[in-house]
Each structure stands twice: as structure tokens, then as C-alpha cells.
């Protein structure tokens, strides 16, 4: 679309997809509601929203925005202050936007923090791979886009295999092993160069897409699986916020790493640009691997009864 139409179409194409998604949501997703209606937590919404906004801008300031470090630190501290104020207030009001009691459910707490850190690598993936193909390897926009098709196709296929895999192995083993595999595969993309056979590149992207898809499915399921109907909506909303925040932070971290490594390797020749990408992929992969420690805290039987039901 970028190469043959205009860049506007990468946003316009989301409109019909979004309409289909809205129809599917209204038709197939259960309408779960709490037993009692509650007032909307307006102040909590402002505090939490301001925290997410300020923290995201601070992280973007290290990457694409190139903000001075002093300004980044001020934004980060302001965001953390708003987040702390929100949680201190949420513990003493009747109906907070996101109740701290959600974290009394162990699988929710582990799944949410695992999502936060594991998605840093996943968020960097759609940002870094097209840049690697176009900037470092010289692909055209259409060639780079078509090269991503195996990743998307494998991700769709993995969705249908996720349930039997989780039923057989359990959430703890699947998420711990799959997070390690995701980090290793992200780091391995850093080995790609002009000498890499095209079929091998496509195979790496397909494997990465399948692993990434299984990661999303298992993480989201284990986060929400033990919440009751009353907390399901709030828990799902908080998961969505954390997921989007983590993806944004992943792009920001990747941009900051790529900019830093580009400055370190010196003059912008094709070899030095490729080296900067390789170091960035390796770093993002290592960051993702550490998230496996969070999922290892799950018990062997967490979620098994629900999955079988």
C-alpha cells in the first residue's frame, strides 16, 4: 500500500477490519456484567490515564522523539507519581477504576506482569523487522511487506494449535519455554545478513510468528482464567491497557537501542547499519528471555481445570 498507493491506506484499511471486529464482539462475546452498577471513577481515570501517557512519552523521548534526558526524567517521575497516587487512592475508594484486589488472584498478577515484560520484545518485532529489511538489507516496501506474510500465516495457524498444546503441557511449561524460545528467536534475527538465503529468512519469520502467537494466546488466557464474572471486565480492561503500554514501550525501547547502537558504530555505511540492527535484536531478545522468570512462578496446575472445562 505504501509503495503503490499512499501511506494513508495503512490507516484506512483498519476501518473495515474494525467494523467487522465490532460486529463479531457484539455477536459472539458474552455480555458479562457485575451484580451492581457503580459510578465511573473519573478521578481515577484521569490519574491512571495521565500516568500511562507521561510514561509512554518519556520512553518515546529516549527513542524517536530525541528529548533531552532531563525532560525524559521529569516526564517519567511525573508519570510514576500519578501511578502511585492512583493506587494509593484505589485502595480506599469503593469502586476504583481498577481495583487492587485484582492482584489477590495469583494467576492474574503473574500473567499481567508477564505480559508487561514479554510484550516488550513482541512490540519491537513489527517495528524492527520491516526496518531491517528495508534500511539494512535494501528491500523495497512491497518486498518487505510480502516477506512478513509467513509470519502472519504461521501466527494464524498457531492459534488453532494453542489450546491442545496448553491442555497437554499446562500454562507454566508452555509460557516459560515459549518465552525463552521467543527471546532466542528474536536474538537470532540479529544473525540475518545479505548472505542469508531468502528461504531461511522466511522460515525464521514463520517460526517467530508461530511462537509469538502462542505467547499472546497463553499469556492472555492465564491472566483472566481465574477471575470471577464481577472482576472479569475490570481485569480484561487492565490487561488491554498494560498490553498496549507494553507494545508502545517495546517500540520506544527498540528505537532507543537502535539509535544508541547506531551512534556507537560510527559512520552510517550499510555494514555499520546492519551491525546496529544486529545488536538491537540481540538486546531485545535478552530482555524477553528474562520475562520467563515471571511465568516460572505459575504452579504446575494453574489453569488446567478451566482449560479442560
Notes on the structure:
The chain has 309 residues and is mostly helical. The protein has two domains: 57 residues; 206 residues, MFS general substrate transporter like domains (Growth Hormone, Chain: A). The protein is 76% helix and 0% strand. Helix 7 packs antiparallel against helix 8. The chain is globular. The model has no long low-confidence stretch (mean pLDDT 85).
Entry summary:
By secondary structure, the protein is an all-alpha fold. It has helices at residues 9-12, 14-28, 42-62, 69-90, 106-136, 141-147, 149-169, 171-189, 198-224, 229-265, 270-290, 292-295, 304-308. The longest helix is centred in the C-terminal third of the chain and has 37 residues, at 229-265.
Task: Compute the number of helices.
Answer: 13
Largest sheet, described in full? none
User: How many domains?
Assistant: 2
CATH C-level label of the largest domain: Mainly Alpha
Query: How many distinct beta strands?
Result: 0
Rg computed from alpha carbons, rounded to a whole number of angstroms: 21 Å
Q: How far from one another are the termini?
A: 44 Å
Percentage of residues in helical conformation? over 70%
Multimerization status: single chain
Q: Give the overall silhouette.
A: globular
Low-confidence stretches: none
Predict the CATH topology of the largest domain: Growth Hormone, Chain: A
CATH superfamily of the largest domain: MFS general substrate transporter like domains
Order of helices and strands: HHHHHHHHHHHHH
Mean pLDDT: 85
Known CATH architecture of the largest domain = Up-down Bundle
β content, as a range? Answer: under 5%
SS-based structural class? mainly alpha
Amino acid at each position: 500500500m505504501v509503495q503503490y498507493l499512499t501511506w494513508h491506506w495503512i490507516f484506512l484499511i483498519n476501518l473495515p477490519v474494525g467494523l467487522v471486529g465490532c460486529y463479531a464482539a457484539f455477536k459472539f462475546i458474552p455480555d458479562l456484567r457485575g451484580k451492581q452498577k457503580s459510578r465511573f471513577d473519573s478521578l481515577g481515570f484521569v490519574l491512571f490515564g495521565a500516568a500511562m501517557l507521561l510514561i509512554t512519552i518519556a520512553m518515546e523521548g529516549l527513542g524517536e522523539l530525541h528529548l533531552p534526558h532531563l525532560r525524559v526524567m521529569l516526564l517519567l517521575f511525573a508519570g510514576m507519581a500519578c501511578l502511585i497516587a492512583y493506587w494509593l487512592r484505589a485502595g480506599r475508594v469503593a469502586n476504583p477504576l481498577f481495583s487492587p484486589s485484582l492482584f489477590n488472584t495469583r494467576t492474574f498478577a503473574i500473567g499481567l506482569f508477564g505480559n508487561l515484560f514479554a510484550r516488550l520484545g513482541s512490540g519491537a518485532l513489527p517495528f524492527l523487522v520491516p526496518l531491517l529489511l528495508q534500511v539494512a538489507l535494501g528491500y523495497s516496501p512491497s518486498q518487505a511487506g510480502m516477506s512478513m506474510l509467513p509470519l502472519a500465516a504461521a501466527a494464524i495457524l498457531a492459534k488453532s494449535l494453542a489450546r491442545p498444546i496448553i491442555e497437554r503441557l499446562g500454562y507454566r511449561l508452555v509460557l516459560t519455554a515459549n518465552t525463552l524460545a521467543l527471546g532466542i528467536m528474536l536474538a537470532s534475527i540479529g544473525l540475518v545478513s545479505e548472505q542469508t538465503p531468502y528461504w531461511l529468512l522466511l522460515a525464521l519469520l514463520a517460526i517467530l510468528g508461530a511462537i509469538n502467537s502462542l505467547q499472546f494466546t497463553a499469556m492472555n488466557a492465564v491472566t483472566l482464567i481465574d477471575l470471577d464474572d464481577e472482576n472479569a471486565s475490570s481485569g480484561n480492561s487492565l490487561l488491554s491497557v498494560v498490553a498496549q503500554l507494553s507494545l508502545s514501550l517495546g517500540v520506544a525501547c527498540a528505537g532507543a537501542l537502535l539509535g544508541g547502537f547506531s551512534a556507537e558504530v560510527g559512520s552510517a555505511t550499510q555494514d555499520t547499519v546492519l551491525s546496529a540492527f544486529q545488536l538491537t535484536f540481540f538486546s531485545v531478545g535478552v530482555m524477553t528471555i528474562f520475562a520467563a522468570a515471571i511465568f516460572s512462578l505459575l504452579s504446575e496446575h494453574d489453569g488446567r481445570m478451566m482449560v479442560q472445562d
